[in-house]
Amino acid sequence: MVLCFLFIMGSCLPHQLHADQAAPTVVRYPSSDSNPYYYKRVKYFVEMLQLALLKSDHNYQLEKLQMPFMNETRSKTNIAASLYDVHWLNAQTPFEAELEPVRIPLCKGLSGWRILFIRPESQAAFSKIKNMNDLRQYLAGHGSDWPDAARYESLNLPQKLSGSWKGLFSMLKQNRIDYLSRSALEIYDEDDAFPELNLKVESQLVIRYPAAYYFYVRKNNPQLAADVKIGLERAIADGSFDEIFNRYFSEKINRLHMESRRIIEIPLPEDVPLIADRKSHPSYWYTEKVKLPKSSVQ
Q1: Range of 115's domain?
Q2: Domain's final residue, options 193, 208, 223
Q3: Which end is more exposed in the chain, N or C (fewer Cβ atoms within 10 Å of the end residue's Cβ)?
């Protein structure tokens, strides 16, 4: 009887071991450490990706690929060419010809809530801006490959472009531009980066347009897209998504007092898909009416 029992138990073991010890599917993502302020956001996206995969129904292992800093068009090409499997990118409809987006906004749409760096003496003038026509009186500074640059061009808003992120701050200090637009998630990190320039975070306005960071994968990798989606949905439902988001960003956003800022909308016809995404799941997106909990600084 003992031998028979052991045989029966043993016959069950191989399947169980296979299920528990199946080799994980490797998911590769790119990372660059060249800009320490950008790297803080990289850590956030990686933590969200880890969370999503952990809460999926499959076994995954993340693999970091160290790569030079690149623009998003280059990263889109890299994903399509299978250099890596997933990347967080600004939502852009043209990307969808080759890539599959996971339509859950990783930063709650706050990449489209733009706060301005100005010179301290300019605050009185900026406090008088009421609408987009008023904004036309001032010259913006943008990176050549920033989404803002294409939007400003389409709206005929004055801007000066630069290939140097750091150079834009010097341009503002030297009166070569009137303001520098940064997202609500990053402006205080960058304010700490250049204290010697004595620039000011403008206190009255937020320039807003529909925007989101989505995870993108190849079209021929639907399983990964589905698993990331279900993992993020589960994280939102159980509160772990917000736990990470608030740990990184809630204090910075609360410092901006969004509820008391004047919102200048700068929409485009191309925003329709993102507007539809927001209407489908409004709870996924930030609103100035919700006060975020206090959290420790990252």
Answers
A1: 111-208
A2: 208
A3: N
Residues 31 and 163 in one domain: no
Question: Which burial class, exposed, middle or buried, applies to 178 when counting CB atoms under 10 A from its CB (0-12, 13-18, 19+)?
Answer: buried
Average pLDDT (20-45) is: 81
Residue type, 219: K
Residue 72 near residue 35, CB atoms below 8 Å:
no
DSSP-assigned states of every residue in 168-200: HHHHHHTTS-SEEEEETTTHHHHHHH-GGG--E
CA atoms within 13 A on the CB side of 160: 16
**pLDDT (tens digit per residue) in 84-121:** 999 999 999 999 999 999 999 999 999 999 999 999 99
Q: How many CB atoms lie within 10 A of CB 261?
A: 19
39 lies in the same domain as 96 = yes
**21 pLDDT more than 80:** no
